[in-house]
Design brief:
single chain; alpha+beta; flat; 4-stranded antiparallel β-sheet; about 45% helix; 3-stranded antiparallel β-sheet
Amino acid sequence: MRPCGCLRLRATRGAGSWVRRWWGGARDTFYVKDISTPSATVGCMLKPGATLALFGVAAHEISGVHTRLNDLWGTTVAQIQMRHLAASTPQQRLAVLEQTLIARLSERYRLPPAWQHWLERFDANMPVAALVRSSGLSHRHFNALFLNVVGLTPKRYARVQRMQQAIQRIQLAPQTHGIAVALDAGYSDQAHWSREFRAMCGMTPTQYLERAPTQPNHVPVPPSGSSQIFSRQLR
């Protein structure tokens, strides 16, 4: 299962102050991030259900935006920051982040086994109606619960999953013809895939291949000498 959000702590390199501490919610579109200022970042990509377990709020309430950790965790963020600043290596900072997340997990918001099962077997090409029938819930109730857990509706989440599958195929075999990738990922034709790619990633499949990103969801974009990247993240 693909992650549905990301949590990051970012500090200006060489300085003692942290400039960003945020959670990026679920989204099905790209955003542009300025990386012109050198910085050190530690973060993680999380799975569906993490928003409820870590923050105690429905995923859709903080989807599609970046939210300051201070607004979610309050004054405890300052303590987390001090622990990160005291860590001397990237491995130690990751360990601190992992310990922080484990400590913040709430049993109160643990996903029921049935929901874990549905999310694990979620297929981008499976009709949503089939998943609803297997749940035994009404369509409206299922959609509402899915939105609370994942942050996107089932159809929007499937759209992101399908795009992830297509991009994985591009990464594994960049010379594969576009129509083969599109059909294999579940798109009706290459035109359908190209429209979805531009809408979700901000560029065409050809442009994506030309930029040959080393990280599938982070694409360098160098207009006018600007240091920016497009990031398409599933929060």
